[in-house]
């Protein structure tokens, strides 16, 4: 197939992962910061986990916009000697939904406190920690740009992460229905090892529903087999 140009789209991602509280050793004292203790849980729950960069969630006591955090992050990165990725989102836990900034590509936990101080100087306010949690499943929603390399008109590779890919779903289904559908897909043991999340992008003035698949050594053939199983079950 002729090589196609990478496309940039803005959208949302919805996933479920276990999270735990980071204590004061790594964060500003008293602030609420959460760590995804097993990112891509659906895959690494069934397969050996390799070393992975931290996925950290700074819990806020006010709502922020995507544009505000994009501007603030750009200013902070200009003054630091290392890159990081920040995305606006929310975490739903114990029947409460909290606004968050998700940080990744920070290298190590030692940088969290200094990044908090820089966000604080830009007017971002953090929620105080009321309790500590450990390995609690949480529903995570992120608003972010994705960079997609089309394989055909319904499958895409993630240009920034070779272990991620997407395929188009014919319609939207709720999160619980999507989880159940994923379980049914995994009944085919040839397709067992992958993590799935819901996604959507804005394209040509409409919403495109997607499934995001994570798996090490993901190939177009493996992605196609997973997609076909989803679509057969949805039909």
Overview of this protein structure:
- The chain has 235 residues and is an alpha+beta fold.
- It has two domains: 10-139, no CATH class; 146-234, Gyrase A, domain 2.
- Helix content is 23%, strand content 35%.
- Strands 1, 2, 3, 4, 5, 6, 7, 8, 9 and 10 form a ten-stranded antiparallel β-sheet that branches.
- Helix 4 (175-186) packs across helix 5.
- The longest helix is centred in the last third of the chain and has 15 residues, at 220-234.
- The relative contact order is 0.20.
- The mean pLDDT is 91.
Radius of gyration: 18 Å
Mean pLDDT: 91
Shape annotation = globular
- Helical element count? 5
Number of strands: 10
**How many strands, what sense, and barrel or not for the largest sheet?**
10 strands, antiparallel
How many domains in all?
A: 2
End-to-end separation? 28 Å
Helix-strand topology string: EEHEHEEHEEEHEEH
Q: Which regions contain 5 or more consecutive residues with pLDDT less than 50?
A: none
Question: Helix coverage percent of residues?
Answer: 10-25%
Note the quaternary state here: single chain
Strand content: 35-45%
Secondary-structure content class: alpha+beta
